[in-house]
């Protein structure tokens, strides 16, 4: 799996943990979820928001096939989204 570089912190990040974030000047930046959450927290005043990365889990489906799930937490103003990939 190819990793992408966060344009804010420079960290190589798997594609499922990146966000294309638009700015006021019409530009888009590729941010890791930690940088995205920090930016949203700053702009909305939720300065006490603690962004975390959850470890992936592996689960078997009903036929016994194993699947690995990765998680992404995003601050969305006054809500938090948790996605599994």
Helix-strand layout with pairing:
Elements: E1 4-5, E2 12-13, E3 18-22, E4 28-32, H1 33-44, E5 57-60, E6 66-69, E7 71-76, E8 79-84
Antiparallel strand pairs: 1-2, 3-4, 5-6, 7-8
Provide the descriptors you would attach to this structure in a database record.
mainly beta; 85 residues
Characterization of the model:
With 85 residues, this protein is mostly beta strands. It has one domain. 14% of the residues lie in helices and 40% in strands. It contains one helix and eight strands, in the order ββββαββββ. The model has no long low-confidence stretch (mean pLDDT 92).
Morphology: globular
As for the number of domains, it is 1
Average predicted confidence as pLDDT: 92
Number of helices: 1
- Helical residue percent band: 10-25%
Structural class call reads mainly beta
Poorly predicted runs: none
Secondary structure tally: strands: 8
Spatial order of strands in the largest sheet? 1-2
Query: End-to-end span in angstroms?
Result: 14 Å
Main sheet? 2 strands, antiparallel
Outline of the structure:
The protein is mainly beta and 85 residues long. The protein is 14% helix and 40% strand. The chain has one helix at 33-44; strands at 4-5, 12-13, 18-22, 28-32, 57-60, 66-69, 71-76, 79-84.
